[in-house]
From TrEMBL:
Family listed: Belongs to the hemerythrin family.
Top-rank taxon, per record: Bacteria
Name of the protein described by the UniProt record: Hemerythrin-like domain-containing protein
Keywords, in A-Z order: Iron, Metal-binding
SUPFAM superfamilies linked: Hemerythrin-like
GO molecular function: metal ion binding
Ranges of residues in domain Hemerythrin-like: 13-83
Pfam families with a match to the protein in the record: Hemerythrin (PF01814)
Taxonomic lineage from the root: Bacteria, Pseudomonadati, Pseudomonadota, Gammaproteobacteria, sulfur-oxidizing symbionts
Length: 117
């Protein structure tokens, strides 16, 4: 999968969220790089763990911000976060159990794309 670069069209207009989204993009790029044939499974696992931690932090932060500002579609947006975390968790578990080569890259791509909810 090609490297993703930050674009102005990704901006949500809230500086802190944009910075967090930039960090998520860099983590997605790192995940993609860690899936190369020469990477050790432990490297992939570590990237997945860090990405899970940061995603949880980010999604909690974003949900609090949206709720405080009476975001009109808050419940659906919150559900998209839950869906993302469930898909991400599923892929992470497969990698932890069976190694990085057992998870199709299309599944990782799906989770990465859904990060742009």
């Amino acid at each position: 999968m090609s490297k993703t670069e930050w674009k102005d069209e990704f901006s949500v207009g809230v500086g802190e969220l944009d910075e967090q989204h930039k960090k998520i993009i860099s983590m997605i790029n790192l995940l993609n790089e860690s899936q190369s044939e020469t990477s050790q499974v432990e490297v992939v696992r570590n990237v997945l763990i860090e990405m899970m931690k940061y995603s949880k932090f980010h999604l909690d932060y974003e949900e609090n911000l949206l709720e405080q500002n009476d975001y009109p579609d808050f419940e659906n947006h919150k559900k998209s976060h839950l869906d993302y975390m469930m898909a991400y968790s599923s892929i992470s578990i497969e990698v932890m159990k069976h190694g990085k080569d057992q998870v199709p890259k299309r599944d990782c791509k799906l989770v990465c794309v859904s990060a742009y909810h």
